[in-house]
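The material for today's practical consists of a large collection of protein records. Getting from the letters to the tokens is the skill we practise here. To make this concrete, we reproduce a full record directly below:
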Amino acid sequence: DLHGKMYRFTAAATVTLDAAADVADLTDEAGCASYWVRDAAEAAIIELQGAEVMNLNGTAQAAGIGITATGVGESVTVCTDTDADAGGTDGYVTYGATSGWASQ
């Protein structure tokens, strides 16, 4: 569910985001969720659907490539976007990502 929820990684895990177009009417409202890593041993992976794009801190990643972090207190908010790569590709944009998040 990507409607303003906060999720904690309490064990190593992979989350696959819903297709951005399925989350919300992208012209009116964005679907957003926040993720937080509790402990250093908890590798957090956030994956995408198909050829969607993740824009991490202003840089569009390659199509289909998610983000990952391992570290106490790493956090990120992701929101749906109709133009995640400045080329019109649906996907997600990060907000407030701590420095430990990187391309997968």
Q: What stands out?
A: The chain has one domain: 3-99. The first strand starts at residue 3 and ends at 9. Residues 3-99 form a domain with the Jelly Rolls fold (CATH 2.60.120).
